[in-house]
């Protein structure tokens, strides 16, 4: 927890080189006693059973007490939603973690034999896609939950279903590993044919979306009954056991490998949440910012620059999974408690970085994008919402520079008039000031980098009228 602000700020205990060395050692988890750390975003169509699955998983892992389970059962029954008893746990966690600001995504930790798994539970509803973007931009891997019930899988996957959009989104945001839980198999009598039908529909789509088959795993489950989650042989698992000899969901999640982390690159910490935490004396004693280190390392006592703006802050404490830690490295989801800073300068979407190696600011840049399945083509001047980490900014497509071959990247046509669905293109984007609901004509600048200089800082998504229309990477910042 944050200390009193009257105390002098802490001093840095280690050199940057030493922190990098320690972070490297920690990343080689196999040789030490530590577990590998990995974050997982849960995606899928509304009502696919995501919360129920995660609630039941928590219970099966012994991380939800029996007393708590009974309490959830009572509460959900009282609310007339008995079938939501397992989902109750996820929602309760969300409330508990709500520290006075809008929480857009539930976060919790599952302790697996070899992995400390940070779970980012994204709401499946259409209106919540922007929140999902924020969750996915902090994740290493995705768990796609699909409902095997006849007709339901099809509804979630067809045009307009969230499964398809979520998959494209997470891949565009850099998530390269996916586990698919084919859920609610109890509804189809644990039919092997149904499971295989769903896998054979999803496989080609996942490959097309950019997931390599070696980083794609399918697992049949029934979340509510707890079938094939942690143990192979459980009550009700006979139907599945007849034909499924593969792994449980937990085995699949525990064997995920963390991607290589850009530990040595300069620190980039995009803020996904700002809150006034547990400090006691003044408000400023507990200004916390949470998010994921996109790159680099950070330690207690370090002075950081906040961009945009001219402000700096000092890291007073670092909280990782409810523990106070001396340093943190790329890939970790942490909360930094800051001092010597006015909270008005800390905003969702701002980026913390070393004062000696700041993130460039840009109001216009060239991007290479892939256009999704859109009805209305994109033209020069099209207004969009630009998503970059947790920030969304009004912007416009100021120039259509070229359409590109999706495989080779070669120019097909220079200066096209329109971009239609499923094309790849090079475009110029220009930010507009103000907010999404009240954009102003005054240009604004955001901290952003080219994909070539920092992958994590160089990915963008474009939305229009509540629909994701394109995703891509930043090629060049315009002066
Ligand atoms: N038969 C059956 N029903 C399930 C299973 N898992 C969930 N359900 C039911 O499906 C409904 C939706 O479950 P949730 O866990 O809330 O689904 P969700 O995907 O988290 O929903 P959103 O958060 O709204 O996207 C509830 O009525 C659950 O009881 C399952 O394994 N089998």
UniProtKB/TrEMBL annotation:
Principal subcellular localisation of the protein: cytoplasm
Any one GO BP annotation for this protein: cytoplasmic translational termination
Subcellular location: Cytoplasm
InterPro entries with a match to the protein in the record: G_TR_CS (IPR031157), GTP-eEF1A_C (IPR054696), P-loop_NTPase (IPR027417), T_Tr_GTP-bd_dom (IPR000795), TRAFAC_GTPase_members (IPR050100), Transl_B-barrel_sf (IPR009000), Transl_elong_EF1A/Init_IF2_C (IPR009001)
Coiled-coil features, chain-numbered ranges: none
Keywords: Cytoplasm, GTP-binding, Hydrolase, Nucleotide-binding, Protein biosynthesis
GO CC annotations, alphabetized: cytosol; Dom34-Hbs1 complex
Pfam families: GTP-eEF1A_C, GTP_EFTU
Transmembrane segments: none
A GO term for molecular function: GTP binding
Domain Tr-type G: 35-263
Reactions catalysed: GTP + H2O = GDP + phosphate + H(+)
Family: Belongs to the TRAFAC class translation factor GTPase superfamily. Classic translation factor GTPase family. EF-Tu/EF-1A subfamily.
Binding partners and assembly: Component of the Dom34-Hbs1 complex, also named Pelota-HBS1L complex, composed of dom34 and hbs1.
Name of the protein this chain belongs to: Elongation factor 1 alpha-like protein
Gene source species: Tulasnella calospora MUT 4182
């Amino acid at each position: 927890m944050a200390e009193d602000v009257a105390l002098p700020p802490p001093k840095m205990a280690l050199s940057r080189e030493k922190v990098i060395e320690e972070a490297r050692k920690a990343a080689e988890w196999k040789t030490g006693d530590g577990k590998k750390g990995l974050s997982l975003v849960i995606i899928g169509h509304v009502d696919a059973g995501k919360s129920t699955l995660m609630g039941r998983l928590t219970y099966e892992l012994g991380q939800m007490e029996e007393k708590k389970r009974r309490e959830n059962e009572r509460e959900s029954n009282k609310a007339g939603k008995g079938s939501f008893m397992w989902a109750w746990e996820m929602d309760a966690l969300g409330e508990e973690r709500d520290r006075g600001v809008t929480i857009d995504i539930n976060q919790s930790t599952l302790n697996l034999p070899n992995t400390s798994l940070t779970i980012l539970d994204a709401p499946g509803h259409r209106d919540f896609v922007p929140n999902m973007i924020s969750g996915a931009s902090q994740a290493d891997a995705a768990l796609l939950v699909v409902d095997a019930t006849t007709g339901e899988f099809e509804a979630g996957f067809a045009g307009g279903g969230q499964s398809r959009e979520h998959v494209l989104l997470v891949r565009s945001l850099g998530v390269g590993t996916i586990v698919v839980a084919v859920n609610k198999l109890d509804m189809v009598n644990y039919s092997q044919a149904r499971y295989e039908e769903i896998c054979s529909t999803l496989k080609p789509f996942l490959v097309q979306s950019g997931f390599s088959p070696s980083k794609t795993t399918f697992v049949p489950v029934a979340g509510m009954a707890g079938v094939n989650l942690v143990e192979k042989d459980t009550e009700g698992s006979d139907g599945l056991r007849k034909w499924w000899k593969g792994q449980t969901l937990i085995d699949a999640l525990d064997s995920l490998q963390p991607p290589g982390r850009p530990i040595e690159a300069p620190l980039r910490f995009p803020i996904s949440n700002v809150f006034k935490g547990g400090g006691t004396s003044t408000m400023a004693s507990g200004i916390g910012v949470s998010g994921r280190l996109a790159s680099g390392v950070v330690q207690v006592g370090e002075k950081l620059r906040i961009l945009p703006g001219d402000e700096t802050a000092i890291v007073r404490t670092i909280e990782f999974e409810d523990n106070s830690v001396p340093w943190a490295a790329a890939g970790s989801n942490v909360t930094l408690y800051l001092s010597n800073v006015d909270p008005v300068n800390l905003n969702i979407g701002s980026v913390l970085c070393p004062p000696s190696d700041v993130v460039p600011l840009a109001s216009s840049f060239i991007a290479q994008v892939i256009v999704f399945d859109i009805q209305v083509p994109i033209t020069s001047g099209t207004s969009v919402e630009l998503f970059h980490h947790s920030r969304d900014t009004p912007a416009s497509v100021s120039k259509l520079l070229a359409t590109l071959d999706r495989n080779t990247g070669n120019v097909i046509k220079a200066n096209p008039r329109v971009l239609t669905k499923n094309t790849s293109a090079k475009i110029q984007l220009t930010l507009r000031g103000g907010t999404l609901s009240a954009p102003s004509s005054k240009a604004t600048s955001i901290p952003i980098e080219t994909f070539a200089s920092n992958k994590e800082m160089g990915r963008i998504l474009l939305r229009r009228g509540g629909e994701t229309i394109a995703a891509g990477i930043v090629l060049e910042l315009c002066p």
